[in-house]
Structures are given as C-alpha cells and as structure tokens.
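Lecture 7, part 2: worked example. A protein chain together with magnesium ion.
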Amino acid sequence: MSVLTQQATDAFRALTGNDPEGIWAAPGRINLIGEHTDYNDGFVLPFALPQAAYVAAAPRTDGRWRFRSVDLDETVELGPDDLVPGSPGWQSYLAGVVWALQQAGHTVAGADVVLTSDVPLGAGLSSSAAIECAALAAFADLNGLDIEPLERAKLARTAENAYVGAPTGLLDQAASTLCIEDHALFLDCRDFASRQVPLAVTGAGLEILVVDTRTRHSHVDGEYAARRASCEEASRILGVPALRDVTDLDAALARLPELIGRRVRHIVTENARVLEAVAALDAGDYPRLGELMTASHASMRDDYEITETSVDLAVVTACAAGALGARMTGGGFGGCVLALVRAEQVEQVAAAVTAAFAEASLGQPVTFLGRPSAGARRLH
Ligand code: ADP
Ligand code: MG
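Predicted complex, written out as structure tokens:
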C-alpha cells in the first residue's frame, strides 16, 4: 500500500471509526506541448504525473456528505440543500462533483470522503482536476454509475466551471481521467477525440525533468483574458470559426495587425508542432520531440509573450547543460518547465538550473521526474 493510500485509509478510520469501502486515485497532469491551443479548438498533448489525489470513501445512510482534506486538516459536512453553485472553499471541488452528477440525472447517496494529495496546489499541475476526478471515480463506483471516461471528465469539468466557477477547458480533467502509463494523451479540443501516444521515456533512456520555478505572477488572469480576446478578434477578422481553421498562415498574417499576427502565428505553429510531436513519438524520435519543445518555448516567448525571466533561464540553462529540448508548460508567466533529458544527465541538468537560479537570485527551483503515469483508477 502506498504512503498516500495508507494515509487516506488511516484518516478515514480516524474520522469514521470504520474502513473505507474503497480507495481511488487520480493524477495531476502536465502538458508536453500545445499551449493556449485549447481555446482555439486546437490540439494538446498532456500526460499524467506520478503525483495524485487519493480518496478514501464509503456511503452514509443519512444523505449527507462529509469531506475531509488531510492536507488542509479540515472537515466539512454538507446536506442536500448546501449544494449551491458558487459556494466558496476547497470542498466545492468535491461538492461540485456531486452536484454535476445530480445535474446529469444521477442519484448520489451521501458519503464520507477523505482526501489526500501530493499534487502541489496552485503550481499549474492541476491539483483541482486531480481531486475532482478522484472524487468522481469514487462517487461513480459507490453509486454503481456506469459513466464513460470522457463523460466523467466532462462532469468533473462541469464541477469546476459551473459549481466552483473557474472557467477552464477540458484538458485537465481529460488528462486526469483518460491518461495511461507511458503515454501522452493527444486531445483534439474541438471534438474531444483522443488517442494514446507512446511516451515511454525511461525505456528510451530518457527522463522528463520538471522544473517548478516557483514563480507565479498575479497578472496571469488578465494576460490570459487578453490572449483569448486577441484570438477571438483574429478569428473574426479572418472569418474562421477558430484559429484551428487557419490553413494559410502567411495569407492570414497579411490581413492582421502586427501584434495580433504574432499571437496567431504562435497558435498556428503550435498546433502544427503538436501534430509533429505526435508523429515523432509514434516514430520513437525523441531528439525531434526535443527540438519541437524548444521551438514551442521560443514561440511562447517571442510571439505569444507569455514567458518571463525564470522560465526562460530554466529553458536556456537546461538546453546548454545537455537537454534534448525544454519548454515552459502551462498558462504562462512562471510555473513549470519541462526538459527532455538523457537519464544519465538528469542530475547535471537539474544542478545547472539550480545554480543558474542562485546566480540570478531567483530562489530555489523544485525539480522532479515527470514519468508519464496512469489516470483515474480504483486502487482497493
Ligand atoms: P491547480 O489546479 O493548478 O493546482 P487550482 O487553483 O485550479 O490550482 O486548484 C487549487 C485548489 O484546489 C486549492 O486552492 C484547493 O481549493 C483545491 N485543492 C487541491 N488539492 C487539495 C487538497 N489536497 N485538499 C484540499 N483542497 C485541495
Ligand atoms: Mg486547477
């Protein structure tokens, strides 16, 4: 039994005096390539992280829900009348899952739910989708609900969009639900068709080193809204449903103001890079994947202008220290960098980035191996 499974089980016993009926887990995720393409009906390629949320749960007979977060050391109890969209607090991610299931016509019995997670909160690794998708798996099993994986992801997204009130795309929940070990999930954000693409890095003598720069900028939401607005304006000018539909980039650029043109160039070339990355992975061509990652970073830096000092430094340093390629991942303005590194060079690359950060007074980055892991599942 893993440490977190044990922790969830122990905490469940402490809370209820009984054993849980089951343990479920769902992972955080990271996007290998395809940034800001999701809201342009484009392509993304996330994979599930080893870090995951673990849920120990059992039904109750009184129709109420008790949620405990071991990590926050908080317990909250809700009745049916308390399931109100827009309610604040961490428990809304779980209450939102109950609500979304109910909205979809499912009957959800009361339950005791104990949660613990090693997905860092707010680091862009989607700790929120991890707890939603783990809870959804638990509620589905406890209530005997037969729900397809993609439908589960959509319900978890509804919890986050309509109940918590965070306007996110399907990427996080799809990755947390659908991913399988040693694969990335190629997801078409127009119709949500998906395919598992082999990403067996360790088998190829490689690792994906994740560098959490621990820089988070407060203006991210405003910048995100501005980028979305630029994409919508460009689609309107070009007369296409979404930037996904731009087929002739040069012709499009000739019709757009300079700044919006650069935003469009990022989206169009990034979509192409995702398709190329999928082809490279199908062919086991990891050097090509590395090149595409670094090209993606340059595009985010120069055209989409969503990087900043720390992620740029991490990418440049990782590549100089031997990485096959590196890029920022996530919405931008800080967060995490992924570097594709030969297994024997992991320590040297991590040390080089840490030293460069110290030199530039950027604090201490956190590094870990992002081994492509399994999506939501029942453990016991
Ligand atoms: P991200 O998904 O990038 O980590 P979000 O802001 O979307 O960041 O989600 C973080 C929120 O999810 C936290 O503020 C908290 O409300 C909730 N959350 C995530 N993990 C836990 C946990 N282990 N215990 C309680 N709440 C959690
Ligand atoms: Mg989130």
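The longest strand covers residues 46-59. The two ends are 9 Å apart (CA to CA). Keep this in mind for problem set question 3.
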